[in-house]
Amino acid sequence: MSRKKVDSKEVGLELGLVLGRYFLKTDDLHYGYWPEDLEVDIVNFPKAQKNYSDFIFSHIPKDIHRILDVGSGSGNFSKRLIENKYLV
Fold first, then answer.
1. Matching InterPro entries, A to Z (predicted)?
2. CA 1, CA 51: separation in Å to the nearest integer?
Protein backbone atom coordinates (compact mmCIF):
# COMPACT_ATOMS: atom_id res chain seq x y z
CA MET A 1 0.00 0.00 0.00
CA SER A 2 1.59 3.28 -1.10
CA ARG A 3 1.16 6.45 0.88
CA LYS A 4 0.23 9.68 -0.84
CA LYS A 5 2.79 12.42 -0.33
CA VAL A 6 1.37 15.41 1.54
CA ASP A 7 2.45 18.92 0.53
CA SER A 8 3.45 20.79 3.69
CA LYS A 9 2.38 24.10 2.10
CA GLU A 10 -1.15 22.77 1.66
CA VAL A 11 -1.22 21.53 5.24
CA GLY A 12 -0.02 24.92 6.47
CA LEU A 13 -2.65 26.74 4.43
CA GLU A 14 -5.45 24.53 5.71
CA LEU A 15 -4.21 24.78 9.29
CA GLY A 16 -4.02 28.57 9.04
CA LEU A 17 -7.56 28.72 7.68
CA VAL A 18 -8.98 26.46 10.38
CA LEU A 19 -7.22 28.29 13.22
CA GLY A 20 -8.17 31.69 11.84
CA ARG A 21 -11.77 30.80 11.17
CA TYR A 22 -12.57 29.08 14.46
CA PHE A 23 -10.32 30.84 16.95
CA LEU A 24 -9.96 34.34 15.50
CA LYS A 25 -13.23 34.57 13.52
CA THR A 26 -11.46 35.57 10.31
CA ASP A 27 -10.99 34.05 6.86
CA ASP A 28 -7.97 36.14 5.86
CA LEU A 29 -4.42 34.80 5.93
CA HIS A 30 -2.35 37.99 6.14
CA TYR A 31 -0.91 39.66 9.23
CA GLY A 32 -2.91 42.84 8.94
CA TYR A 33 -2.21 46.53 9.39
CA TRP A 34 -1.75 47.77 12.94
CA PRO A 35 -2.02 51.57 13.22
CA GLU A 36 -0.70 53.15 16.42
CA ASP A 37 -4.18 53.40 17.96
CA LEU A 38 -4.82 49.64 17.60
CA GLU A 39 -3.30 47.59 20.40
CA VAL A 40 -1.27 44.62 19.19
CA ASP A 41 -3.40 41.92 20.78
CA ILE A 42 -4.81 38.68 19.41
CA VAL A 43 -8.38 39.94 19.88
CA ASN A 44 -7.60 42.79 17.45
CA PHE A 45 -6.22 40.49 14.75
CA PRO A 46 -9.43 40.42 12.63
CA LYS A 47 -9.63 44.24 12.80
CA ALA A 48 -5.99 44.54 11.71
CA GLN A 49 -6.67 42.20 8.79
CA LYS A 50 -9.67 44.29 7.74
CA ASN A 51 -7.52 47.43 8.05
CA TYR A 52 -5.00 45.92 5.65
CA SER A 53 -7.63 44.89 3.11
CA ASP A 54 -9.23 48.35 3.32
CA PHE A 55 -5.79 49.93 2.84
CA ILE A 56 -5.20 47.92 -0.33
CA PHE A 57 -8.67 48.79 -1.65
CA SER A 58 -8.09 52.49 -1.01
CA HIS A 59 -4.96 52.38 -3.19
CA ILE A 60 -6.47 50.73 -6.28
CA PRO A 61 -6.47 53.36 -9.04
CA LYS A 62 -9.95 54.36 -10.25
CA ASP A 63 -9.29 53.26 -13.85
CA ILE A 64 -8.27 49.69 -12.88
CA HIS A 65 -10.85 46.94 -13.44
CA ARG A 66 -8.73 43.78 -13.71
CA ILE A 67 -6.55 42.54 -10.85
CA LEU A 68 -4.23 39.55 -10.55
CA ASP A 69 -4.24 38.36 -6.93
CA VAL A 70 -0.90 36.57 -6.62
CA GLY A 71 -0.59 34.34 -3.56
CA SER A 72 -4.28 34.73 -2.84
CA GLY A 73 -4.22 32.58 0.30
CA SER A 74 -7.77 31.76 1.31
CA GLY A 75 -9.26 33.68 -1.62
CA ASN A 76 -11.16 35.94 0.75
CA PHE A 77 -9.63 39.14 -0.66
CA SER A 78 -10.32 37.97 -4.23
CA LYS A 79 -13.92 37.33 -3.25
CA ARG A 80 -14.15 40.88 -1.92
CA LEU A 81 -12.65 42.23 -5.16
CA ILE A 82 -15.25 40.33 -7.20
CA GLU A 83 -18.06 41.64 -4.97
CA ASN A 84 -16.81 45.13 -5.84
CA LYS A 85 -17.02 44.41 -9.60
CA TYR A 86 -13.32 43.81 -10.30
CA LEU A 87 -12.26 41.08 -12.71
CA VAL A 88 -9.90 38.81 -10.78
1. SAM-dependent_MTases_sf
2. 49
Angle between helix 76-83 and 45-58 (nearest 10):
50
Domain boundaries, the chain: 8-83
- CB count within 10 Å of CB 80 equals 16
Q: What is the mean pLDDT of each successive set of 10 residues along the chain, which is 88 residues long?
A: 76 73 76 92 90 94 93 82 94
- Distance, in Å, from the CA atom of 29 to the CA atom of 13, rounded to the nearest integer, reads 8
3-state secondary structure 15-67: HHHHHHHHHHCCCCCCCCCCCCCCCCCHHHHHHHHHHHHHHHHHCCCCCCCEC
Q: What is the pTM of this model?
A: 0.69
